[in-house]
């Protein structure tokens, strides 16, 4: 691996002018020349579909890939709560600066000021774009757009479409993309998964894909590659991610030299439906917006934990978030709420099912809200979420409080990118959850959709164009030996998986074990000795995996067992890097709570002097000895303070 | 809970499929797809190929899952996708017949997986509002009556799963088309394209779907409760578009 000079290419000058000035400084490709350039976009969720549609409109040749049977099924679709934008429609004092500040603070001062300001600045254009596309956001009786407040904010800046905001925004981007497919600027490949990146002279110039129906491996050459392949929360096995979400594209790029930033920053969402049994395949999130009207409590006395909630008297209930954080109450940021719930359950005051001898759940109660606002108002706001809860938990949340417990939900870490969203590999860009860029150590609610769409509609089209303006279009008629080599390497890897020496266990069986290890080591609380022990366990299990993984069927037809096995192989490698990152970051910040660095009253203790940096890891050829590059974070416009939500 | 399962197995589009019998014992809190996961684990352990079926989000929104359970698309629990069916809903059954969607326009790829790319073609034919990135005006410039916005949202919740086609004796995609047309063409932003309904219906015919003859089976099985009134709305728009 060659040495890499870490340069974020962040513009200088006044914060408000940076993006405008930068956009002016970026080169553009003349419209007549655009069709000479080929762009590959892998992953077609919010970021990927928005980028592909916009680049297609501009006149480039775009090739898109997704593993689902349609771009409309990307996991962006499951985002419930909403999307933030600094429109200040409520006249409650919101502004670009306030959204910027809230995001930086919410991320516990571990994100770049320039990127976050740009995000806040672009937020308003996203709403304009979405409304014009026909996204049916909630409206007031006046006919104007409605807003609600969301965790970590004291203003109402969240736009929403009932509890299906992600679905509606994704359909908007998907439809824009469909239009470009119809016009021939996008060629789309569904049921097609990226297997590897093709590098020519050190630049990203294509990918190897596997047709998931026929098993056929194919190489695709282009002038630039954009990865919008989402997060890696499924490393934990149980998470709120869709079953297919995986880290393979970013991880394989990482192994070719793309630095991986802050891998241990994984968000644990406080309001998920607790695990019910061993066969459980995923966890389901209940939108954070529920915390606007729902009150979180646990029994004050352990003796009450087995009682029905309605049998527990008002004075015996501990509304612990309201007690611990009177200023923000139930609306504290996700990491703080999650840790508080864990604390209560660790004390033995949890409720619901026993999992490994512990009750892991607390109540989220709507009785008061129904009493104040009426059943109809609550049903209008949360009806579909209540129905979903009832389907899964077989309890009626209108009459019995919901039970919730934190679950892995989002990964702030991802491929390191500069201000242009280019990774450390020349010509490889990353957008949306796949990059690390804007959320620091904790993402605020309703900010994922905002970031995915800002990257897709507004940042990538400008920065990818600038990159292309500096390149000569690649000769597509020529054949490239690098493509052949990459294809062969993919074939070898699949052969190795299909032919483990002593096949004994299913891929899922290994994945469940890996999930338990990483959840205990790198979940809501992290501790040196546990992390060290877990690294040993992960390595041992990984060795066993390649010896014993059992895949039936063949590799030249549709084979979901093989698909999973390839993804799990990558999770095994990424899991080790997550633990190494968590071990190296000797502080607590945002989601990263090191037991050794917690204040007396249980709050995360940052060490800004030593750790105010982005940890960007380079693959060295040895998974256990990655090279750490530090991108120091400089705060010119906000002063890092201790987050205080009390 | 013990079940005798009859599951459709088919190697590929060209081969002949048949029901295969299995036995499974699971708890009532297991979801329907988790029951199939458990069966697949057993099959792999017994050196057999796992049953192929589509799924992704497992929370009822992505539209991937598509099982016909005992003759009903998505199963017994109404207004619910296959992934959100729980075994407790099948407490009074001993045998379960599990099949893929069946329609000419949805050819079987393998076992329970079908090819729904015909739906993509329909959307590509005009299921969008034309607006270039960055050219949109301020969002609050055009107020939209709450009732209109709410009604558009009701149609926009379609997840494109295809249950409506699977349930229809004509294998028609009219409800899918009508939902998209109603969503886009009743909003002020979407009224510019007067031919949307016509374009989408033509694409539907071209893809090999049947026509609508008012069986209303689609409405019964739609996991998102899209109403056949959207078809009325579409027909009205179709009429207006032709004049």
Describe the structure.
The complex is a heterodimer of chains A (646) and B (243). Chain A has helices at residues 18-25, 31-34, 46-58, 96-106, 113-133, 165-183, 248-254, 320-324, 334-346, 367-373, 375-393, 448-469, 481-498, 507-522, 528-548, 560-584, 608-611; strands spanning 38-42, 61-65, 83-84, 148-149, 156-159, 186-189, 192-200, 203-211, 217-221, 224-227, 260-261, 266-272, 295-299, 317-318, 354-355, 358-359, 362-365, 402-411, 414-415, 428-430, 613-618, 627-632. Chain A is α+β, with helices and mostly antiparallel strands and 646 residues long. Chain A folds into 3 domains: 15-267 and 410-469, FAD/NAD(P)-binding domain, CATH 3.50.50; 271-408, Alpha-Beta Complex (Flavocytochrome C3, Chain A, domain 1), CATH 3.90.700.10; 481-611, Up-down Bundle (Methane Monooxygenase Hydroxylase, Chain G, domain 1), CATH 1.20.58. In chain A, strand 1, helix 3 and strand 2 (61-65) form a beta-alpha-beta unit. Chain A is globular. Chain B has 243 residues and is of the alpha+beta class. In chain B, strands 2-1-5-3-4 form a 5-stranded mixed sheet. In chain B, a hairpin with a 2-residue loop joins strand 3 and strand 4 (72-73). The radius of gyration of chain B is 20 Å and the shape is elongated. The mean pLDDT of chain B is 96. The chains are: A alpha+beta (646), B alpha+beta (243). At the A-B interface, helix 3, helix 5, helix 6, helix 11 and helix 12 of A face helix 1, helix 2 and helix 3 of B.
